[in-house]
Amino acid sequence: MKHNFLTLLLVFFSLIWGVIWASWYSYILWNYGNISNTPAQQQAQTQVITTELTDLQNNITQLAETVSPSVVSVVIKKDLVVYRSDPWGFFQQPTGTVSRQVWGGSGFFISENGTILTNKHVVADASADYTIITSDGVEYDAEVLATDPINDLAVLQIVWSDAGTKFLPLSFITSAEKIHIWEFTIAVWNALAEFQNSVSLGIISGKDRNIEASGEALTGLIQTDAAINPWNSGWPLIDLSGKVIGINTAIASNSNGIGFSIALTQEKVDYIMQSIAESGTIKRPFIWINYIPNSDWVSQELWLQTNIWAYIIDEAQSIVPGSSAEKAGLEPGDIILEIDGKKVTNWNSLQSIIQNSIPWDMLSLKVLKKSWNEETLSLELWAF
Q: Which residues are known to be catalytic?
């Protein structure tokens, strides 16, 4: 009986060992087969990688060819005084003026009739003349239709063109949610106001960046490493589907190729054009309240232990009667803590948070009421 038990025990452990050994052997064979590919398998893998890279290159090439005719040079000219000096160079006498190029930038068509989007700082000189040069070298006079009061955007219009001339406008993404970090983008621009149809490839490194440029606080920006220089403001940033996702506006100081673009959508651009058509200006949204941004003094006065808020002054006139703020339920003495999940801070102020919104957008406000209860209110932005 004891002998039979030992025999059965030996058979059992033999089966277990056999299963373990077979599993280990199969594992070694499987991994060895994957690592030790035959030359034919390695060649096939190389061909797949090469094909994918070729497809990417062909896509970018086709994209650049499609976009280039829509991108223009914006040439800024001014009448400069010409002087005549005596043979010894002691005296100079003005003899007249001559039109000279003093600056340049880029822009791109947003309509078939020659409407162009560029940066506000490109066309900031009201005394200058503006000339548009298309990708095929044709020059047109242009005028500034409107500039954005809070964003670095401006709209130009070609004054005259041959009858029947139609330009090639670019289209935009439908939502900012379609902008993804680490995705490839291309930029088509006018390098140094001289070398047209320059193209660079870049990667999106960040969204919702905040910077200060030319004395303005710019928010909600796209960060990219597409090659840039001081004379190419106004170029479009394009995703690989051929849609505009932003317009270049600034370069980070003391950086090597870090650029920032204002995020754009078709809805935003359509609103800009509608606002210009109806009022001749680009109207922007306001909350219609009189408020004080956070400061140490106000915090002490209100016994607040937070630096995240905008305080609506506790006076009757702090809420415009009949405004969207009043309809939303805001009251004097309320403290706005967040807008659409974004905390209101000194750097990320109430105004900067709504800077990239448009009238009729609905905002969700987290508010600390005078009763010290937190409430969430819905507010519709109105234009001003």
A: 121, 152, 233
